[in-house]
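Help needed: design a sequence for this.
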């Protein structure tokens, strides 16, 4: 981890300057204690010629993938591109460089399967790993869907080993599923050439009390980040689980520790300006915050 982990620690405590509210997507973000290299698309495609980079996870992985694809495409507008997509996999391939940036849609990383009792979330099973294991760079993420209830819940039962549950403490389920993933990484991704990342928890902004505006129920009118480098709402509760699980791993794995710097960006969500109906304070505008994530990923990859 070395340099990069130092850099990330600094970034979690970074300070930045906001230009103006109407230029909110051009914030000049700088870490306090280290230099973050500028994202260099030409360098990126040359270094990763012939490689496959895969983002695996929910719509926050989609957000990250979109950012990287846009950064590459904007810098190389003439490049020949092939796009393929189905329900599970979206591929953006820069033909001249044989470089693929791939998105694999998976809400939980572990499997959901249709058994005779219904849809079963299997905490100890990760069959999609067969597709993932051949990638050169892997960026995993899961969290958002573990707590969902009602119609948004994607399963009828949870299975762990021989035991079947109608429901369980979701933080326990999350920790168990993540541990299955960690064990799979340790036993499967053995090549020192492979680079494995976990995309830190991406925070939402639906509770104004977290940023000292207790009446607010969303990010609708937010035009500025939280000032300073400390989020009043404190550490995101899921980060401890992520760190605990990553600490047990043998494989060198980078935590892209984007949580705190993203918590400060209550202004960076689409809010009502989204393709869905309603208020979106979960995802992020592009261009915008995920470009900082891409810049961090680039820094980690080239160090
Ligand atoms: C999606 O595309 C991938 C790669 O081409 C393929 O392996 C997979 O079977 C496809 N999945 C579906 C659901 O069509
Ligand atoms: C945003 O601010 C406007 C103007 O003050 C107000 O009318 C509106 O209700 C606010 N929206 C939300 C969702 O708080």
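Sure. Designed sequence:
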């Amino acid at each position: 981890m070395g340099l990069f982990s130092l850099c990330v620690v600094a970034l979690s405590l970074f300070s930045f300057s906001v230009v103006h509210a109407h230029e909110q997507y051009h914030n000049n973000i700088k870490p306090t204690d280290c230099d973050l290299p500028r994202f260099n698309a030409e360098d990126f495609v040359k270094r990763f010629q012939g490689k496959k980079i895969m983002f695996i996870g929910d719509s926050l992985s989609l957000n990250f993938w979109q950012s990287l694809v846009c950064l590459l495409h904007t810098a190389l507008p003439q490049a020949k591109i092939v796009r393929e997509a189905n329900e599970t996999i979206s591929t953006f391939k820069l033909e001249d460089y044989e470089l693929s940036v791939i998105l694999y849609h998976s809400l939980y990383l572990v499997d959901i399967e249709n058994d005779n009792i219904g849809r079963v979330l299997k905490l100890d099973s990760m069959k999609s790993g067969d597709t993932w294991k051949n990638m050169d760079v892997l960026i995993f993420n899961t969290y958002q869907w573990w707590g969902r209830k009602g119609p948004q819940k994607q399963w009828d039962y949870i299975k762990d080993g021989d035991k079947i549950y109608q429901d369980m403490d979701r933080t326990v389920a999350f920790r168990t599923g993540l541990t299955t993933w960690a064990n799979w990484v340790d036993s499967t991704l053995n090549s020192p050439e492979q680079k494995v990342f976990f995309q830190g928890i991406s925070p939402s902004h639906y509770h104004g009390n977290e940023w000292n505006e207790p009446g607010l129920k969303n990010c609708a009118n937010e035009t500025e980040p939280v000032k300073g480098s400390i989020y009043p709402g404190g550490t995101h509760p899921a980060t401890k689980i992520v760190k605990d699980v990553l600490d047990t791993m043998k494989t060198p794995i980078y935590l892209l520790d984007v949580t705190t710097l993203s918590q400060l960006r209550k202004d960076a969500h689409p809010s009502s300006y989204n393709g869905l109906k309603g208020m979106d304070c979960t995802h992020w505008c592009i261009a915008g915050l995920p470009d900082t994530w891409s810049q961090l990923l680039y820094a980690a990859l080239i160090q």
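The helical segments are 2-12, 41-47, 59-75, 129-132, 170-188, 237-247, 259-263, 289-302.
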